[in-house]
Design goal:
The chain starts with a helix and ends in a 21-residue tail after the last helix. Among the domains are: about 1-40 and about 80-115 and about 270-350, FAD/NAD(P)-binding domain; about 120-265, FAD/NAD(P)-binding domain (3-Layer(bba) Sandwich), CATH 3.50.50. It is about 30% helix and about 25% strand. Strand 21 and strand 22 form a beta hairpin. The protein contains 11 helices and 23 strands. Helix 2 packs parallel to helix 9 (about 320-340) and helix 5 (about 135-150) runs antiparallel to helix 6. By secondary structure, it is an alpha/beta fold. It has helices at about 1-5, 20-25, 50-55, 65-70, 135-150, 155-160, 170-190, 220-230, 320-340, 385-400, 405-420; strands spanning about 10-15, 35-40, 45, 65, 75-80, 85-90, 95, 100-105, 105-110, 115, 165-170, 200-205, 235, 240-245, 250, 255-260, 260-265, 270, 295, 300-305, 365-370, 375-380, 380-385.
């Protein structure tokens, strides 16, 4: 009877991404917990498909859903749209941009990451990242607007700059985005323009390392490069960017590239909230937590998702991917439930040392390369080509957390695939034209 009369423990979750949402779902309708989830947006975003929005293959609602709707059946979970500005670990409080102060018994920090520039934050003003819906829409707007401007201008040099897209970073984001852009421009839009030849539009993927997709097997990296080149993508390896200016990239070897669209996919920076926790962070602001995902000196504060840089209890590196974040959220929820179960038992004083340690179940990596090819690596299984693309498609559809529109997304993809006519090519609020940009 005593357990029923106990005051519910306040669990404050910052971030409605994969880790935070999974933790809230797992604690849902457990009356031992009073859960508050705070996010600066009102939607959960399926980030792995952001590049599909950026390249007009999907519309924003296809990969985003209201957090409130996802958790509407969890009666003990309150969802608030606020932006957390500071954390006080000692006072056990969090302060939002609204001025509201939230107190907690347990804090789960899963606020995610943004585009990182390796300490060169001034580069952000001249490039586009891909971490949010607004980022994806900005990329789509920029590229489609540039094509419209190229159709309008008669200045050959200006047209060439408008028809150059530079993507910095040869990881999965850069590879998937460049392949999708090549498909969009060279196949889908080839008959849409009269004054420009879209086959001459340059998509350039720039990577500092000798290989793109360097965490995959070398033969998969080579396959991805060859596939991109067949699609018309220029792949520049061992090219280190030393400066990003307006419409211009400069490289370590002294060369430069003029491009009216520069997309930065080369790094991430963790939420600045990690600095409030009083623990060491890496260059990107990420934390190496204890193996139970709590932080040093604060067993009541947990970090998850892109905010972590860690190896699990079996010494396996935990990558910043959606499956890992989901597993972290699930682990924290199980730990909190077990901790409350131990209260009032002979093990109560030892509950921290009895905490389960996080183990990452590696479900593999995959990256799509253009319209109907992908690379997949899962343990000893390696797959390239069309069947890897089919696996990518099915897995991503199944992984759409709480999305009731999985079938509509699949149908939309199928239509775009068969017709070569993406339906999300409308430019909203295009940049204003100027005489200098468009000598006609």
């Amino acid at each position: 009877m005593a357990s029923k009369e106990r005051t519910p423990r306040k669990v404050l979750i910052i971030g409605g991404g994969f880790a935070g949402l999974e933790c809230a779902r797992r604690l849902g309708n457990d009356d031992r917990f009073e859960v508050t989830l705070i996010d600066r947006t009102n939607h959960h975003l399926f980030q792995p498909l952001l590049y599909q929005v950026a390249t007009a293959s999907l519309a924003s609602p296809d990969i985003a859903r209201s957090i409130r709707q996802i958790l509407h059946n969890a009666k003990n979970v309150t969802v608030l749209m606020d932006e957390v500005k500071s954390i006080s670990p000692t006072k056990k409080t969090v302060t939002g941009a609204s001025g509201t102060v939230y107190d907690f018994d347990y804090l789960v920090l899963a606020a995610g990451a943004k585009t990182g520039f390796f300490g060169n934050d001034q580069w952000e003003a001249y490039s586009l990242g891909l971490k949010s819906l607004s980022d994806a829409q900005d990329i789509r707007r920029k590229i489609l607007s540039n094509l419209e401007r190229a159709e309008l201008t008669t200045d050959y040099a200006e047209r060439e700059r408008l028809m150059t897209i530079a993507i910095v970073g040869g990881g999965p984001t850069g590879v998937e985005l460049s392949g999708a852009l090549a498909d969009l421009i060279h196949r889908t839009l080839k008959s849409n323009f009269r004054r420009i030849d879209t086959s001459k539009l340059r998509v350039i993927l720039i990577e500092n390392s000798p290989k793109i997709l360097e965490h995959y097997d070398p033969e998969q990296s080579d396959y991805a490069k060859e596939r991109l080149q067949k699609l018309g993508v220029e792949v520049w390896n061992e090219m280190r960017v030393t400066n990003v200016l307006e419409n211009r990239l400069e490289f370590q070897d002294g060369s430069s590239l003029d491009a009216k669209a520069i997309v930065w996919a080369a790094g991430i920076a963790a939420s600045p909230l990690t600095r409030d926790l009083g623990v060491d962070t890496d260059r990107a602001g990420r934390i190496t937590p204890n193996l139970d995902l709590s932080i040093k000196g604060h067993p009541d504060i947990f970090v998850a998702g892109d905010l972590t840089n860690m190896r699990d209890k079996e010494d396996k590196f935990v990558p910043g991917v959606a499956p890992a974040a989901v597993q972290m959220g699930d682990h924290i929820s199980k730990l909190l439930k077990e901790e409350l179960r131990l209260e009032g038992t002979t093990f109560a004083e030892r509950k921290q040392e009895l905490r389960p340690l996080f183990r990452y179940n590696d479900k593999g990596m995959m990256a799509i390369i253009g319209k109907n090819a992908a690379v997949l690596k899962a343990g000893n299984l390696k797959m390239n080509g069309f069947f890897a693309w089919i696996a990518w498609l099915l897995i991503h559809i199944l992984f759409l957390i709480g999305f009731s529109n999985k079938i509509s997304v699949l149908i939309g993809w199928a239509f775009s695939y068969l017709s070569n006519k993406p339906q999300a090519r409308i430019i909203v609020h295009p940049p204003a034209f100027t005489d200098a940009e468009h000598p006609v």
